[in-house]
Prior knowledge:
This protein is mainly alpha-helical. Helix content is 73%, strand content 0%. The protein is built from 9 helices and no strands.
Amino acid sequence: MGRPPRHDVGRLLDVAVELAADGPGRVTVAAVARAAGAPSGSVYHRFAGLPALRAALWLRTVERFQAGFLDALRGGPPDRAAGEAARHVVAWSRAHREEARVLLHGRSALDEDGWPAEDRARLGEADRRVRAAVRDLAGRLGVEEERAAVAVIDLPYAIVRRHLLGGGEIAPGTEDRVAEAAVLLTRR
Length: 188
């Protein structure tokens, strides 16, 4: 039995998150290797190049976020689901500050157009899952989809963006205020 790899995919992506939180342009193969204390060959062994590394960074981050977000959207009575989904955006961002900053910078900052086709397809599927869940929530609430999206996506992200990209902390109680606002926005 061989020994486990010293520089596994998870560790390399953790390092990439740290770099990307301060600006996605900081994520290069050389920078990730240097920060991980790994030879560049270890990075290239696990990723087909910089576009694949950046795609893996984005996809892992967005899928981690979406797991709880989608659960919140689909759970319980629709007004409660709206509040819990908005709350999740803030709570997850507080708990995963660097990953949240990666998401706030946006996938285009990670050169999405150059990603391998299979990664772009995986991203498309993740986007479709969120759109479908928001559409379903809007139907259950009896409101237009745009209204539901503003309540559970746009509003909480704007608040998180203001705090995290501005270098500050998310104020205590923000989750409660965002959840309350989401519920109010989704009432007919």
